Amino acid sequence: MFTYLVRRLIYVLPVAIGVSIICFLLVHIAPGDPLTAIMPVDATAEEQAAMRSAYGLDKPLPVQYAIWIGKAAMGDLGKSIATGRPVADEVFAAVRNSLLLAFSASVIAFPIGLFLGFLAGYFRDTIFDRLVTAIAITGVSVPNYWLGIVLVIIFSVQLGWLPSMGAGPGGSGEWTWDYAHVRHLILPAVTLAVVPIGIVARTVRALVGDIFSMDFVQALYAKGLRHSDVLRHVVRNAAPTALSVMGLQLGYLLGGSILIETVFNWPGSGFLLSNAIFQRDLPLLQGTILILSLFFVGMNLIVDVAQAAIDPRIKRS
Amino acid sequence: MSAATDTVVPEAPVITAAGYWTGVLKRFSRDPVAVTCAVIVLLLILSAVFAPYLGLDDPYKASMIKRLKPIGYPGFPLGTDEQGRDMLSRLIYGGRLTLFVGLVPVVLAFFIGSAFGLVAGYAGGRINALIMRTVDVFFAFPSVLLAIAISSALGAGIVNSLVSLTIVFIPPIARVAESATASVRALDYIDAARASGGGALTIIRVHIIGNVLGPIFVYATSLTSVCMILAAGLSFLGIGVRPPEPEWGLMLNTLRTAIYVNPWVAALPGLMIFITSLCLNLLSDGLRSAMNVKD
Question: Quick check: pTM over 0.95?
Answer without folding.
Answer: no
